[in-house]
Every structure is written in structure tokens, then in C-alpha cells.
Write a structure and sequence with these properties.
Helices cover 29% and strands 22% of the residues. It is an alpha+beta fold. This is Nitroreductase domain-containing protein.
């Protein structure tokens, strides 16, 4: 059985609105959180299941005092994992004019 941190932190990402601009802002904020966590050796797990509840999915759930819930994260320290292989840059970008 894998050993994980006994006391992980749970974070919630909220936006004031729930439209396309808010979704973009939430994605940008999530990107910064994940990159910062990685830089500090912190693992992150995303939990989107609560966002799939019928009340959340159809927009009938009113925003709480913190705004609209966009994502839940579990942050903590876990066992080391191997690096993901990366494709060479010349295979990803076409640098020809």
C-alpha cells in the first residue's frame, strides 16, 4: 500500500462569476498553483466530482460567500514518482517559415 501524507491540505478555487472569463481566470490560477506546488515538491490531486453534481452542473446552485467553486485540490507530500518522458522540441514546434 502506498504511503501518503497523513494530513494533506485541501484547497478550493473560487471565482466571482461563472462565465467564460471566470473559467479562463480559474484555469490560469490553477496553472500557477500547480507550477508553484511542483517547484516546492508538493503533489496535487484534482477533485472535480463535486462540480459534476446536478445543482453545480446546471448553474442552479447559488454562489456562496466565497463565489463560484471551480476546482478542489488535495495538496501534500507523496512518494516520489518517475519523470514523464518528453518529446524533443523539434518534434513539437515547426520552426520553418
Amino acid at each position: 500500500m502506498a504511503r501518503f501524507e497523513k494530513e494533506p491540505q485541501i484547497a478550493a478555487l473560487f471565482t466571482r462569476g461563472d462565465g467564460p472569463r471566470d473559467w479562463l481566470a480559474a484555469g490560469q490560477a490553477l496553472q500557477r498553483v500547480l507550477l508553484t506546488a511542483t517547484a516546492h515538491g508538493v503533489s496535487a490531486s484534482l477533485f472535480s466530482q463535486p462540480l459534476d453534481l446536478p445543482e453545480q452542473a446546471d448553474g442552479t446552485e447559488p454562489a456562496g460567500t466565497l463565489g463560484h467553486l471551480q476546482m478542489l485540490l488535495r495538496l501534500g507530500y507523496g512518494p516520489p514518482v518517475p519523470a514523464v518522458p518528453r518529446r524533443p522540441l523539434h518534434e513539437v514546434f515547426n520552426t520553418r517559415p
